Automatic annotation (TrEMBL):
Domain GST N-terminal: 18-105
Protein name (Swiss-Prot/TrEMBL): Glutathione S-transferase N-terminal domain-containing protein
Signal peptide location: none
Pfam family, one: GST_N
Entry-linked InterPro entries: Glutathione-S-Trfase_C-like (IPR010987), Glutathione_S-Trfase (IPR040079), Glutathione_S-Trfase_N (IPR004045)
Domain GST C-terminal: 108-233
Length: 233
C-alpha cells in the first residue's frame, strides 16, 4: 500500500484533495475518456494537467505512475479493499471506473460482453488507425512523398467508419445503452475534424455516425470532460 502524499507523482503534481481520485491527463481523444467517465459517473476527482511534452510524460515523476509514458493515468485512494490503486491505459481505467460504480458497463453479463467488445474495437482499431491517419494526413507524415502509408490509413479509417455506421443502424449507442464503449469511441470519431480528415474519409456519408457524435457531444458530462484538465495551464 502507498500513500498519495509520498508517491513520486506528488512531487510534481501534488494532490490538494488526496481523498479524491487523482487524474493525470490532457484533453486528447484518449485523455478525455477518463475525465468524461468520471463526470458521467459522478465520482469526485482532482485533475492534473500533464502535457504531451517529454518534460511531463517522460519525467521521473510521471514514469513512476505510468512506465509507458502515456496519458491518462489515475490514482484511486479508495481502490479495491480500501487500498489505493494506481492505474494507466485508458481502456483499463474505463473498465475499472465502470465496475467500481456498477454503471455504464451493462446490466447483465451479456451486456457487459458487448460493451467490452466495442471498447476493444476502439482500443485495437479506431484509436491506433485514426491516430496513424492523423500522423500521415496532418502531422509530420504528410511530408513523406510515398503515398502508400497515407492511403493505407485513409482506407482503414473509411473501413472502420463503415463498421460504426452499420452497428449504429437502429440504435442510439454503439453497444445498445450508453456505456464506456461510447466514451471510448466517440472522441476518436471527433478527432477526424481535428485532423482535417472528414472529407477524405467520407464522414458526411455516414449519417448514423454523424448523429451519434452529435448526441454524444450534447451530453453535459461530455462537454465538461472534453476540457478537463484544460489544454492551457
Amino acid at each position: 500500500m502507498f500513500d498519495i502524499a509520498t508517491h513520486p507523482i506528488s512531487r510534481r503534481w501534488p494532490a490538494r484533495h488526496p481523498d479524491r481520485i487523482q487524474l493525470y491527463s490532457f484533453p486528447t481523444p484518449n485523455g478525455v475518456k477518463a475525465s468524461i467517465a468520471l463526470e458521467e459517473l459522478g465520482l469526485p476527482y482532482e485533475a492534473h494537467r500533464v502535457t504531451l511534452s517529454d518534460a511531463d510524460v517522460k519525467s521521473p515523476e510521471f514514469l513512476s505512475l505510468n512506465p509507458n509514458n502515456k496519458i491518462p493515468a489515475i490514482i484511486d485512494p479508495d481502490g479495491p479493499d480500501g487500498a489505493p490503486l494506481a492505474l494507466f491505459e485508458s481502456g483499463a481505467i474505463l473498465i475499472y471506473l465502470a465496475e467500481k460504480t456498477g454503471k455504464l458497463i451493462g446490466s447483465t453479463a451479456a451486456d457487459k460482453a458487448q460493451v467490452i467488445q466495442w471498447l476493444m474495437f476502439q482500443m485495437g482499431g479506431v484509436g491506433p488507425m485514426f491516430g496513424q491517419l492523423g500522423f500521415f494526413w496532418k502531422f509530420a507524415g504528410k511530408e513523406i512523398e510515398d503515398p502508400r502509408p497515407r492511403d493505407r490509413y485513409v482506407a482503414e479509417a473509411k473501413r472502420l467508419l463503415n463498421v460504426v455506421e452499420t452497428a449504429l443502424d437502429g440504435r442510439d449507442w454503439i453497444a445498445g445503452d450508453y456505456s464506456i464503449a461510447d466514451i471510448a469511441l466517440a472522441p476518436w470519431l471527433r478527432s477526424l475534424d481535428f485532423y482535417g480528415a472528414r472529407e477524405v474519409t467520407g464522414w458526411a456519408d455516414h449519417p448514423n455516425a454523424v448523429a451519434y457524435l452529435e448526441r454524444f457531444l450534447n451530453r453535459p458530462a461530455v462537454q465538461k470532460g472534453l476540457v478537463t484538465p484544460p489544454r492551457e495551464g
